[in-house]
Design a protein that fits this description.
Largest sheet: 7 strands, mixed
Distance between the termini: 21 Å
Strand content: 15-25%
Order of helices and strands: HEHEEHEEEHEHEE
Number of strands: 9
Radius of gyration: 16 Å
Strand order of the largest sheet: 1-9-8-7-4-2-3
């Protein structure tokens, strides 16, 4: 951004035009890891909490993680395990883990998900993410969507996969694909 100050603002303006309102604030960073760290830092600052809810295999919860280790009361990260992708099972896990985090000393800062489980190429059951967002927001947490794999028109008609699912996150992460080889990622959020 220092090399091309005029171009940076033009790029930010162009990028934010691809997002629906109220997602109009954009921050550029050098990698998806930095974007994730920035998004989580924003969620922690907003909620005054550090507890994190995610899905096994998704952002912040690797495929090889032991599901039981995240359910211990000393952990600030809880991973939902998508057993056979059954709606009732996923909702129950999410609600239980979100409520436990909210009541823990860590509190609930955010839910961070991809709009589909890209490591398995699986979609969530219809309505799951809407319900998940409602649960997290009712507990004063933020909803973060990682569009590093599914965004930038890869989902067909919609430019962002969350638009295809008709959900509205509070924060969106876009990884290195944004820079087309240049070290560039972004965090897009509301004011």
């Amino acid at each position: 951004p220092r090399l091309y100050p005029g171009h940076t603002q033009l790029y930010l303006n162009t990028l934010t035009r691809w997002f629906p309102s109220p997602l109009k604030e954009c921050f550029l960073v050098a990698s998806a890891r930095e974007a994730t760290a920035l998004a989580l830092g924003m969620a922690k600052a907003y909620s005054h909490s550090t507890g994190l809810l995610t899905v096994l295999g998704g952002p912040c919860c690797p495929d090889k993680a032991e599901p039981d280790s995240s359910s211990q009361s000393s952990s600030h990260t809880r991973c939902i395990v998508p057993h056979k992708m059954q709606m009732g099972s996923l909702q129950a896990q999410l609600r239980t883990n979100a409520e436990k985090l909210a009541l823990s000393p860590f509190g609930l800062s955010a839910l961070i998900v991809e709009c589909m489980i890209t490591s398995e190429c699986l979609n969530y059951p219809s309505g799951f993410l809407e319900e998940a967002f409602d649960i997290v927001r009712s507990l004063k947490g933020l909803c973060i969507v990682d569009e590093s794999q599914t965004g930038l028109g890869r989902s067909g008609f919609h430019f962002w996969y969350f638009q295809k699912l008709n959900i509205m996150p509070d924060i969106v992460i876009v990884g290195e694909a944004l820079g087309n080889g240049f070290p560039l990622a972004a965090v897009i959020t509301t004011k």
